[in-house]
Amino acid sequence: MEITIQLIKQLRDKTGAGMADCKNALNETQGDIDKAIEVLRKKGAATASKRAEKSAKEGSVKVSKTDDKKIAAMIELNCETDFVAKGDGFQSFTDKLAALSLNHKANSADELLNVKTDEGITVKETIDSMMASVGEKVELRRVKCIEMKNGFISSYVHFGSKLGGLVAVQGPYSDEAYDLGNKIAMQLVAMSPLAIDKDGIAKEVIEKEREIYIAAAKNEGKPDNIAEKIVENKLGKFYNENCLLEQEYINESGKSVGALIKEFEKKSDGEFKLVEIVRYQLGL
Known about the structure:
3-stranded antiparallel beta sheet; 6 strands
């Protein structure tokens, strides 16, 4: 059977593999598309196994949301080099993965890896084929899907798609509320808070900080009563830096994010409560 360019393109569309790989697979299977797909899958699986120990810290973070902004998904897909990460094929594939996560409400990498694409193969098989095509380790690292039935979800993905954030808000949707949520998502991405407020920070983290501050004060020879005041002041600074509501708003010095939200609630006469935050940074 003649291996035409149309046949090669058809196989490429189904698998995402390179043109040369598709041509070789079709030659090997005498033009049988289904058998050629199997050949490419096996090659992809072999490549995946071979590159398992490689470091994949480049890649892309992408977000997909429903039109009503009530469900949002964020994914992180890694590769080895920035060259591959910036390629149109890699970028369009990460957009596709975010949309698949949203459509299937996949809330972990394992869940999404088992989802079937429009080509009839799983995400894992598609990633294996991509590895064979680009010659690099490609790894689906993280997936998160959030649903807010009594609110909405705002987001921000930094230029270059290396950082992304989701902010789930309880309260009525409006263009102004959604815009504020997006600004807070930008704050989340830029300032990397540990939690929304003090209650969200693990007790062991606070105790460790307190232990460090007490030891430092005692090493300076401070009496117990003074040492305790120093510790409380330092803990206050720790909260200011690591709790989103207590952080200084990046677009207006002297005003906290919490104060910004209170101003909006007063102006709009509606609730605006941060319920969940998710921040992805490549490799971290």
